[in-house]
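ugh ok fine here u go
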Amino acid sequence: MAEETQKPEAAAPPAPAEEVVVEKESEQEAASEKPTDAVVEDKPAEAVEEEPKVEAKDTKVTESASFKEETNIAGELPDPQKKALDELKQLIQEALNKHEFTPPPAKDKDKPAPEEKKEEDQPATSAAETEVKVETEAPAPVEVKEEEKADPPIEAPAPVEVREEEKADPPVEAPAPETVMETEVVEKVSAADDDGAKTVEAIEESVVAVATPPPAEKPEEEASSSLKPDEVAQSEEKPEEAEVPPPPPQEVSIWGIPLLADERSDVILLKFLRARDFKVKDAFTMIKNTVIWRKEFGVDGLLDEELGNELDKVVFMHGFDKEGHPVCYNVYGEFQNKELYQNTFADEEKRSKFLRWRIQFLEKSIRKLDFSPNGISTIVQVNDLKNSPGPGKRELRQATNQALHLLQDNYPEFVAKQVFINVPWWYLAFNMMISPFLTQRTKSKFVCASPAKSSDILFRYIAPEQVPVQYGGLSRDGEQEFTVADAATEVTIKPATKHSVEFPVTEKSTVVWEVRVVGWDVNYGAEFVPTAEDGYTVIVSKTRKVGPADETVISNSFKTGEPGKIVLTIDNQTTKKKKLVYRSKAKPYSE
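structure:
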């Protein structure tokens, strides 16, 4: 025993050496793939020897604070990532062959039924065994007494006959049912002792009478009959297994794309791999859990459900960012409406409906994404916290946390950027509350902006013509002179300065323009200046003070038959910088 205990102690030191090699490899890989190390914190319950790895990766995450999307083309992946993708495909193929992507509750329900039957069968058999044991144990001592009592009065020849019977008995004793014979003999002999009138011949006749019928065969038949169902079941199962061919591989799709089919499947698998830092087994487990959850939650059927349109102003898709990602706006301030809040979060049933609505909305948005290797398969989330209910709203907090869990566990790498605008003071506490549920990779996508900086932050990622007017942009509903295809220009106006914008005009044309200053509170005017020196300047719009609530966007036009230019003048007399956004176009006309 001492040697056995010493052997593991002697074998222990090499393990850290191997881990050091893995750390070096992971560090070398991380140097080339800096964004993939962020999810290490998802698994804190690891061995003590792995703690140095976590610390090393944490330092790398702080260095790679800015997030950049990686390629989805398999041929352009680094070799370790290619290998991980191939290994994941193999695991998925094996799981599909074994039909492992099925919800476990169905199996659990089937298992208890046979177990209960077995438990019901066991008492019956045990009762039968106890009866047999009682019968076998009781006659054993009685037989000895009978022989002792029967020996003195019986003459010499009588014992010889009894011995013959005893000789005839051993072959009967070999089978199990001898006990029944012994009990009958005991009963008759005991009766003879009580009467004192029966002779040995009567005993012999009773013994022979007991020996002649075949009761010994009944227990054998019972035993054989009790074994026959099991044997028959086994014999029936074996040929069935041999005859029935193995079922075809299971077909599993996520977001309308099979797990193993084409290049689009690689994009799906890479999302799960990146969410688990290219740990193949963890990514496979995540995929498996996601498929099972989607079946249990009924995601595919959820797409056709009618869940109402009360929340259309709370969450909506609008435009694209500068890289082509669809933009989703989440307006929490809408929940200041008490009726809407109560109808959405008052009880568990309503919160469950809200969660289903949110999943339905996300599923419909995902179905519009392009999962080709060169396509865009992520979304930009804009979260407007202006006038949003504070952390004291327990129902909203519960629904938010539940949604975060589901989205992070089942929708990996679908968010390219999380932009929080109009952030209030209490958001820091809220951020600390949700932070434990987010991976470091997810946190690297977060951008926050105060109310004064919200438009600037949005314009950093989204062009002004794509931003809704309520957030400082030019995009409006309904038919407009301009569309999102007409690009806008951004200008920052310094405090206490004037800024002029000029639109050139050709002969016989109509110039149309849109202009807005975020927050306005400036003086605005427009005029036409002809190119000819003897021409007259035409005032298109008199200079006036535009307040924050006066107009969001000023639209105007000017028709002229001579060349010149339209000059817009914005006078910022405040002590703050102002963001100016404008665009124009000229439309020729004929008389």
